[in-house]
């Protein structure tokens, strides 16, 4: 609200100090925004750890029988799926996923994660694995189910 000053030709603006309630609301909003930013950054950081490489470069060489020569191959294998384990995959304790209702033509599998979850990324003729962050509680794998009998892996989301 502008008020005229006692001096001619000048005006000043009256400033009111914010109420205690307004200051508290502003502080609450600021803290909530900071928390949301922190959660989104940590979730993005975990999500980055979870992603399987879309292809895996493999160099292979066969043990050729006597009189034969092995020709090494250098193949790029496509990602075909994922498996979640309780503990390292070498222990062979894979978790059974729950099937969820299909969404937008995608077949979904969900795993509830436990103490020491591991992710296996499966490729056409090889696999790689790594331990997942302990903060994650569940993962959902999305597969496209074309008319063929095989499922096509689309993506993995973990929270």
Keywords:
alpha+beta, four-stranded antiparallel beta sheet, 159 residues, 19% helix, single chain
Number of helical regions: 1
Q: Report on the biggest sheet.
A: 4 strands, antiparallel
Cα(first) to Cα(last) distance is 50 Å
Rg measurement, Å: 29 Å
Output the strand order for the largest sheet.
3-4-7-8
Order of helices and strands: EEHEEEEEEEE
Low-confidence stretches: 32-48
Q: What proportion of the residues is helical, as a percent range?
A: 10-25%
Query: What integer is the average pLDDT?
Result: 79
Q: Any idea what the shape is?
A: elongated
Beta-strand fraction estimate:
35-45%
Briefly note the structural class of the backbone.
alpha+beta
Q: How many beta-strand segments?
A: 10
């Amino acid at each position: 609200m502008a008020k005229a000053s006692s001096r001619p030709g000048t005006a000043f603006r009256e400033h009111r100090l914010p109420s205690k309630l307004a200051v508290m609301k502003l502080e609450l909003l600021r803290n909530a925004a900071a928390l949301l930013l922190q959660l989104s950054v940590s979730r993005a950081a975990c999500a980055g750890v979870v992603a399987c490489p879309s292809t895996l470069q493999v160099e292979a060489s066969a043990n050729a029988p006597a009189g034969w020569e092995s020709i090494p191959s250098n193949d790029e294998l496509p990602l075909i799926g994922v498996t979640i384990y309780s503990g390292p995959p070498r222990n062979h304790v894979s978790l059974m996923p729950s099937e969820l209702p299909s969404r937008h033509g995608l077949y979904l599998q969900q795993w509830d994660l436990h103490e020491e979850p591991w992710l296996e990324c499966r490729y056409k003729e090889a696999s790689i694995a790594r331990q997942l962050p302990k903060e994650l509680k569940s993962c959902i794998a999305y597969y496209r189910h074309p008319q063929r009998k095989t499922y096509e892996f689309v993506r993995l989301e973990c929270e």
